[in-house]
């Protein structure tokens, strides 16, 4: 079954995950998460001024031995999908290649969110085992890339990343995505720099590279609220995306994230929620060197920490933890991509007639 990568609600109705989905919908603790976001390290080789995890960077990593153990524990817990992410740059950890092999050979789907600078060093494993690789680019030219994604010396590595993506595009079995965050910044002299004018150019480059999709997203502030943009900026982005749609065919897709849709609908930075427990937290969690958290939105938040994967096994953490420590009505007033999934889980739990589970497809709920 072909499932839209952003249709998270439909993904709940897959047979292999359905028993745990029913438990989560019924308020029963699950036997383990279906999806795990895993930060191998907090270190990163870039110095992006708008990095939402900037305050959490360069504060530790799993040892290669513990990271390999975690991969084995994920297999034992029957996790269906793992996203290697950060935090830091996941490919900067020398143990990530082994994680890709262990998970891939066990039949676990693996997604990778990367800045792309180290794809060449991990090319064989990424090409063979990654279900998808999404590269955070946020620019269509080297000059704009340097403004928003400089390395530690303030230089642009745009050309290097593009070359790495071309190598992966030629060798990959999974999907390759070009991610574009709509960004702007007021400089000290009062001027404003933005990347919104390069959306079309970046989409054309993504198509030329051999990417499978080009995704535009809205920028978040430190509290994960969607940053509002002037109407003229949004109009510019939409006009470019309309032209970029002409690039679409059976091998290339233009993807609009829910955050960009929220900007178009002018829903504002706050997303109210009237439920007090996140059912998705029974199905998806975040594992980092600093702790295990109920979800990626709460990375580094001690109030949402449920264990320490450095010293505890994931099975023990899951068995002993309370995933209900976060109250979405109070603690998650930002835009959450899984809010619709929580509403659907409420419907399932209430016994509202629902479709029979279909066939398995994309496990990244």
Task: Fill in the CATH topology.
Answer: TIM Barrel
Structurally, how many domains make up the residues?
A: 1
Q: What is the level-2 CATH architecture name?
A: Alpha-Beta Barrel
| Oligomer category | single chain
Global mean pLDDT: 93
Identify the strand order in the major beta sheet. Answer: 9-8-5-4-3-2-1-10-11-12
Shape: globular
Q: Which residue ranges are poorly predicted, with pLDDT under 50 across at least 5 consecutive positions?
A: none
Distance between the termini: 15 Å
User: Which percent range describes the beta-strand content?
Assistant: 5-15%
Protein name: Radical SAM protein
Organism: Streptomyces gossypii
Keywords: Iron, Iron-sulfur, Metal-binding, S-adenosyl-L-methionine
Detailed description of the structure:
The structure is a single chain. The strands form two sheets. The chain has a ten-stranded mixed sheet. Strands 6-7 form a two-stranded antiparallel sheet. The chain contains twelve helices and twelve strands. The chain is an alpha/beta fold and 365 residues long. It is globular. It has helices spanning 18-25, 64-76, 96-105, 123-129, 142-148, 158-171, 199-209, 231-244, 258-264, 314-320, 328-331, 339-349, and strands spanning 35-38, 81-84, 109-114, 132-136, 175-182, 184-186, 192-194, 213-218, 253-256, 284-288, 291-293, 305-307. Helix content is 31%, strand content 15%. The chain has one domain (33-332): Alpha-Beta Barrel (TIM Barrel), CATH 3.20.20. Helix 2 runs parallel beside helix 3. InterPro entries: Aldolase_TIM, Radical_SAM_PqqE_MftC-like, rSAM, rSAM_sf.
């Amino acid at each position: 079954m072909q499932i839209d990568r952003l249709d998270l609600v439909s993904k709940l109705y897959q047979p292999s995950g359905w028993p745990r989905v029913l438990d989560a919908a019924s308020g029963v603790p699950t036997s383990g998460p279906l999806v795990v976001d895993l930060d191998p390290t907090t270190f990163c080789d870039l110095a992006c001024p708008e990095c939402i995890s900037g305050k959490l960077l360069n504060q530790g990593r799993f040892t290669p031995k513990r990271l390999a153990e975690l991969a084995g524990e994920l297999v034992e817990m029957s996790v269906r999908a793992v996203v290697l992410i950060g935090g830091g740059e996941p490919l900067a950890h020398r143990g990530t290649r082994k994680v890709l092999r262990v998970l891939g050979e066990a039949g676990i789907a693996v997604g990778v969110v990367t800045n792309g600078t180290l794809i060449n060093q991990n090319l064989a494993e990424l090409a063979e085992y990654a279900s998808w690789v999404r590269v955070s680019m946020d620019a269509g030219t080297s000059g704009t890339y340097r403004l928003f994604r400089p390395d530690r010396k303030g230089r642009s590595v745009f050309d290097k990343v593009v070359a790495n993506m071309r190598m992966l595009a030629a060798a990959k079995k999974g999907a390759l995505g070009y991610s574009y965050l709509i960004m702007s910044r007021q400089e000290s002299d009062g001027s404003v720099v933005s990347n919104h004018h390069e959306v079309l150019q970046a989409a054309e480059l993504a198509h030329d590279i051999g990417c499978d999709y080009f995704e535009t997203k809205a920028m978040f502030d430190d509290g994960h609220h969607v940053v509002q943009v002037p109407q003229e900026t949004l109009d510019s982005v939409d006009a470019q995306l309309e032209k970029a749609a002409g690039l679409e065919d059976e091998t290339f897709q233009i993807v609009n994230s829910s955050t960009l849709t929220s900007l178009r609908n002018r829903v504002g930075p706050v997303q109210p929620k009237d439920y007090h427990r996140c059912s998705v937290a029974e199905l998806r969690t975040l594992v980092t060197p600093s702790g295990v958290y109920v979800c990626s939105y709460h990375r580094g938040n001690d109030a949402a920490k449920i264990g320490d994967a450095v010293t505890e096994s994931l099975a023990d953490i899951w068995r002993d933890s309370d995933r209900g420590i976060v109250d979405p009505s109070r603690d998650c007033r930002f835009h959450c991509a899984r809010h619709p999934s929580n509403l659907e889980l409420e419907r399932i739990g209430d016994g509202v007639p629902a479709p029979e589970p279909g066939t398995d497809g994309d496990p990244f709920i």
